Amino acid sequence: MMTGTEIATGLVSAAAFAAAAVGARRLLHGPDVRATAAVRIGAAVAILSSSALLIRAVVAEGPAAALQQGYESMSLLAVLTGLLAAGLHLARTLRGLDAFLFAFAALMEAAALVFGGEASMPSTQRPWFISHALAITLSGVFFTAAGLAGVAYLAAYRGLRRRPVREPSAVGASLESLDRFGRTALILGFPLFTYGILTGMCGIAHRRDLSFAGMLTDVTALLSLAAWGVYAYMLICSLWRPNVRGPTAAALATVGWVVVTTAFLARELMSPLHQ
Amino acid sequence: MRTLVIGCNHRTAPVRTRERIALSAEALPRAAREFRARFPGVQFAFLSTCNRMEVYLAAPSGATPRIAEVIAFLGEFHGVEPEAFAAGLYTHEDVAAARHLFRVASSLDSMVVGESQILAQVKSALEQARATGSAGPELEGLFEHALAVARDIHARTGLSAGKVSVGSVAADLAGRIFSRLDDKRVLMVGAGEMAETTLSHLLAGRPKHLWVTNRTPATAEELAERLARTHGVAASTVPFDEWVTRLAEADIAVTSTASREPLLTPAGFAAIPRRRGYRSLLIIDIAVPRNVDPAVGAQAGVFLYNIDDLQEVTERNLAQRREAVAAGEAIVETAVIEYAGRCLRRDLSPMIIALRRRFQVVADEELARLIPKLKEASGHDRRLIEQMLHRVLAKLLHGPMSLLGEQADPGTATVYADALRRLFGLQDDELEEEDHDTANSPVHGGLDGRA
To answer: What is the ipTM of this complex?
Structure first.
């Protein structure tokens, strides 16, 4: 069961991330002191409050036990996404993408409130688990960024190809910036994701009650492997097949993100391996 | 205090008239010196742009130069007969002058409504006036208010939204495709004024290299040299029969030749995407008939825009700006009322002081007549009588003065002030005396000699 502190922190963080998203969206129309304040204060409040709760959980229960909790692991994803969004907001090279990432962080905080009440799993207390959880969470952040950049790219690309030419999309960043950002996020996320899958397999090997055959019937495991395939293909193409770039790469990044997000959410509901 | 603007703009005077009285950046300091020598103590600022030439003045009512005197100065300064330009001049006074400057600064009065350059020009006029010592508190207040109104309008309305020239739209599209232009290569195919204007917006981003090609190599050479010199970019020429292959390296191409048939066809372009590693390619085809087959634009990564595409965007943006004009005008009107109220309170201040002084003088005269008759009264009694009289005067004046000072509507306040002035027979010299008493700026100090 979730504690009152967790519920209150989750609500505050979700609201603060949402305020930051609205502020970042408004900043696309030009300088606005109140919008800037909303982004900065909202992001700071959300990141600090959720981080404080995570740190408290890690100190009280140890990292392995804390990261097994539905609420904490989803909140960690929200915090990391929020940090990435704050970095983008300050960098200003990818205007507008910060709004989407803040919105995603708000959604994750809200989702943590909904799904986080699941009973905690027995702790394995093994190092592989911490590595697995951290690597998967971090890769999830990068793939989320790449996926959102892909969505933004497709919207901007469509707007530029249409006649009459449409106004700039919600994200003010150029196609080139979005493409570069998506590729960078993929390059950072893929090794972490691969490592996360490998440590997950280590976990299966350590457990007598689990088998590799079980992976073939586990939704999360299957989706993760499918997403890994998509990202591996993208990575190979970005190195050796330049024709898979631009809109094609953006579409693949979007598909990969949808698969990864589905796998992440399915972990709580439809994954016997993880439960 | 009176505020006055005298000037002409693109609507009231043709360019041949405006250019005769325009003030270049070099001529401005000398004009300021001579104007101040002619009209000492007057606050003034010159606003000279390609579309307008205006002189803004602020001075106490009695010290304001006559319009004819300002026109004569402009004529003498430029060595032009006043008749040659006076017909195109307009004048606005006080509230109308403020409204005019607010509209000018916010580009509601510009040839291209919503253009942002005028805001910088108004700011520059104020800075110039400060630098030459011709600005004073009233004129500075007016200009600062105008700049704030303009910024407010740009922030709250869509008046400056979107690009409204073909060149700026092309540059905007380039900005939506590429994150930066300084690592990009631009290819210009053909020559022509329109192409050059369009290209100048792209060259403002300082691309890495510019290739120019033309059927006449000498024209290409001359154009490349001129563009390199004007925009500070590396430029070279390409033989005309090789420009299609050069697309493999270019990121942006601007085509503008007089060819009757498309110069770039899908067949000719087929090998290019692979050779350029499928990078994005922006093609601006402003030629009529078109130089690039529309089918080329269907290829992935190619962004092809013809002149109609660009003009459609400019038309749409202009329409949006026209829709925002009403909102901008409403903000101007609100600001004018606020500004007029502020001016009124400032202008009423000498009258209130003069009125108090008038009452004080009457009281002092009556006391001077009464006190000698009170032979048996002690010093204490006399002081009590003096205090009582002053309290009565203060209480009698308090109501009307408060009402006047707090009056929000400038029209009503003016009526009240005028009534008080007439009822108590306040003369202009009494009010001006107060002006001098409260003056603290060098400009105010300079007015002493004219009062």
So the answer is: 0.71
